[in-house]
């Protein structure tokens, strides 16, 4: 994972990072109470669970996760 900028750099609660993940990996089931997350899928396929729904994402797809929502990727 490469951090492009972090909340500590004056963006308040926003961090931008690039992650290259091997198949069958990911962040796992979690939630963030203090910040939102946005995911851009650049290549490959990504199964993403949000609010109990399974999203099958691919290149060009974007998903926004408001703070305090559970995700399972």
From TrEMBL:
Entry-linked Pfam families: Cupin_2
Taxonomically, the superkingdom here is Bacteria
UniProt domain Cupin type-2: residue ranges: 22-67
User: Transmembrane region positions?
Assistant: none
Q: What is this protein called?
A: Cupin domain-containing protein
């Amino acid at each position: 994972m490469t951090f492009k900028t972090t909340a500590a750099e004056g963006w308040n609660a926003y961090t931008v990072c690039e992650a290259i993940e091997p198949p069958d990996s990911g962040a796992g089931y979690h939630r963030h109470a203090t910040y939102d997350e946005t995911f851009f899928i650049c290549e490959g396929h990504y199964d993403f669970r949000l609010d109990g729904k399974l999203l099958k994402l691919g290149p060009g797809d974007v998903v926004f996760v408001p703070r305090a929502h559970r995700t399972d990727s």
